[in-house]
């Protein structure tokens, strides 16, 4: 999904001005699995003892990932975990005046600041469409546990070949209806190719709820040039609509068939930084698509919290992976504690 943070500031933080315009990922820093001669079977054999407790075959999933740019992990998130995360979201909506959690408002023609604290917004807005709860995992222990679930981080650790760091999360109640895009253009880590995402279903996905769609194999397409390279920022001469048009047309020319994601509660879609995807229109206005989206990088590519790039971050660690505590909202960290006993 498109990052809901100040994209220009993030890029400025991580990339110093340079006469070189980035038009493709650096081959030397690509994750091993994206290298031309990646030995997936050899990798899986080498680390076989670490994968015996997984509910999927690691080698099979890695082969599928390399070819298609995504994998689906069936029923890895317990239903009670998904329910608890959504109960906490509903609590925030019902008693929003108590919470500082940041909310992104993408309502058409919205005249106010796009990012505001929950306590500043009316409940009618918080419970409606075009609303995204930003980094709710910082407020929620169960949010952290889902984000750093063993089945998710073990697969991504294999993809990156190093320790996983979770970067951000977004919670949706309704489908995003977002145009086709690739995440790397908006969600930027210090090594741009060290990026992946998880889309976690908090309820069964229905066709009329504006489901996510994706193009298998689109991660191999030539990168789009925004006029100043592959990242969208304040100096770009092309915009997200141009990006979407390019991707849809490139996939059509390449014979890549668009797929619709209709998965069940507790299922997880993991996708590559360059997988083209988006959100279908909502056909039934009353139908929800409760979703939890998390973005991940590696320990060598995401070293500092985006709000305090100069400081050593405080970490929550689980299953051999990390997520940084939010230095800007320390009083909101882990205010939803029910997940401690789950």
UniProtKB/TrEMBL annotation:
Signal peptide: none annotated. Keywords: Dioxygenase, Oxidoreductase. Its cofactor is Fe(2+). This is Phytanoyl-CoA dioxygenase family protein. The lineage of its organism: Bacteria, Pseudomonadati, Bacteroidota, Cytophagia, Cytophagales. InterPro entries: Phytyl_CoA_dOase-like. The keyword Transmembrane does not apply. One of its GO terms (molecular function) is dioxygenase activity.
